[in-house]
Design goal:
Blueprint lengths: L2 H38 L6 H21 L18 H15 L15 H24 L13 H11 L13 H8 L2 E10 L1 H6 L4 H21 L3 E5 L3 E7 H6 L4 H24 L11 E10 L1 E4 L3 E4 L1 H12 L5 E3 L1 H8 L6 E8 L5 E8 L2
Parallel strand pairs: 4-7
Antiparallel strand pairs: 1-3, 1-4, 2-3, 5-6, 7-9, 8-9
Helix pairs in contact: 1-2, 1-4, 2-3, 8-10
């Protein structure tokens, strides 16, 4: 082989290497994108596609490693300072077994409180980033993509999945024990909604699916109003909901606590009335009493706890329930303390007195907001 042929041969080999590196980089990016969605969904989205992509990644990675073994070296990839292939080989073996088996996540966790998903995410994200950086150097693109990873991704993901439907998106990643303690130390307004004659919506519905779809749509509408106004949506109760507005949160968002509470409740009622009117058009029988939402409100100190799900405990929740029970469809019933704060706060609202009693016969006076 003369000199010219040798140069051509070397050039062709470099072109082949570059093509192989480029192919691996694209497959790596494809696997990473699918993995991120798979991991964030807790293993529910794109399971077969993610495993298939991992299988292709392993195939082309091994082809590159056969020609250039340094790509398996953690020191070469800047994953750590160990001049070894054990880490990459071990992870690739986990991935291979995962693509061929039924395990939900590839890398098992042996640490207490760390899930297989978290462990897999932590290990893979360093490989995704370091291997991508290495391959970008090899292919020498004119414009390089931005590479970034954070050790906080796991906790951020956990918080967003855990709290996304309870807190507004602006703060769902900030919720922790300290945050819940702040809520517990501040005044909380408890709002409880209950659909009057909801049993008729079930009994005389044209189909179970019609009831389900209508109720899901309604609760999502209510949840959106609450979260858009920085409230805390506790849960759907089967025929209503429980939510909270807190002084600490109001201060964070520079909102007036009681003004927000009244605005939210009025908005929910004004959107509920036409919705239930439309819903009734498909019932086999319409009850004599009105179908609609009763809202009960009380305020005070609530204790917010977390043990795999959020618990909010306090007397205001009990009295908000009693206020709700005292109301009819379309009513907003307010207990004494929040009524006094609204009345003394120069709000442009007026009330009617309501008299009712608890299940044990204890009588009480409450106040019906006049909002029409």
């Amino acid at each position: 082989m003369d000199c010219r042929d040798y140069v051509i041969h070397i050039t062709l080999e470099k072109m082949k290497d570059k093509l192989l590196y480029t192919n691996l980089l694209i497959i790596l990016q494809n696997f990473e994108n699918l993995w991120n969605m798979y991991s964030i969904s807790g293993g529910l989205l794109y399971r077969s596609e993610t495993k298939k992509s991992a299988k292709i990644f392993l195939e082309i990675f091994n082809k590159v490693a056969d020609k250039h073994p340094a790509i398996r070296n953690t020191k070469e990839l800047h994953i750590n300072s160990t001049d070894s292939t054990e880490h990459i080989d071990s992870v690739n073996q986990f991935l291979k077994e995962w693509t061929e088996g039924d395990e939900k996540f590839p890398i098992p966790s042996t640490e207490l409180g760390i899930s297989d998903n978290e462990k897999s995410r932590y290990i893979l994200q360093s490989i995704f980033m370091c291997l991508s950086a290495c391959l970008l150097c090899k292919v020498q693109l004119e414009y390089n993509p931005i590479l970034c990873k954070s050790s906080g991704e796991s906790s951020f993901h956990q918080n967003n999945v855990k709290w996304n439907e309870r807190f507004s998106w602006q703060i769902s990643d900030q919720v922790d024990k300290l945050f819940l303690n702040k809520l517990s130390e501040s005044e909380t307004v408890v709002i409880i909604g209950d659909i009057r004659k909801s049993q008729d919506l079930i009994t005389y519905s044209s189909s179970p699916d019609a009831y389900r779809s209508n109720m899901v749509f309604y609760i999502e509408k209510v949840r959106k109003i609450i979260l858009d106004n920085n409230g805390v949506f506790d849960r759907f109760t089967g025929d209503g909901f429980i939510c909270y507005f807190n002084a600490y949160l109001s201060q964070m968002f520079r909102k007036n606590l009681y003004q927000t509470v009244i605005d939210v409740c009025v908005k929910i009622q004004k959107e509920s009335k036409p919705y239930f009117g439309q819903w009734q058009q498909n019932l086999q029988k319409i009850p004599q009493d009105s179908i609609g939402l009763s809202i009960g409100i009380d305020s005070g100190i609530m204790t917010f706890l977390y043990d795999r799900m959020m618990f909010a405990v306090g007397t205001p929740a009990v009295w908000a329930t009693r206020m709700c029970t005292a109301g009819n469809a379309g009513d907003i019933i307010i207990n004494n303390i929040p009524h006094a704060k609204i009345s003394n706060g120069n709000y442009a609202y007026s009330f009617d007195e309501v008299f009712s009693s608890t299940k044990t016969g204890e009588q009480f006076k409450a106040f019906r907001l006049k909002y029409e």
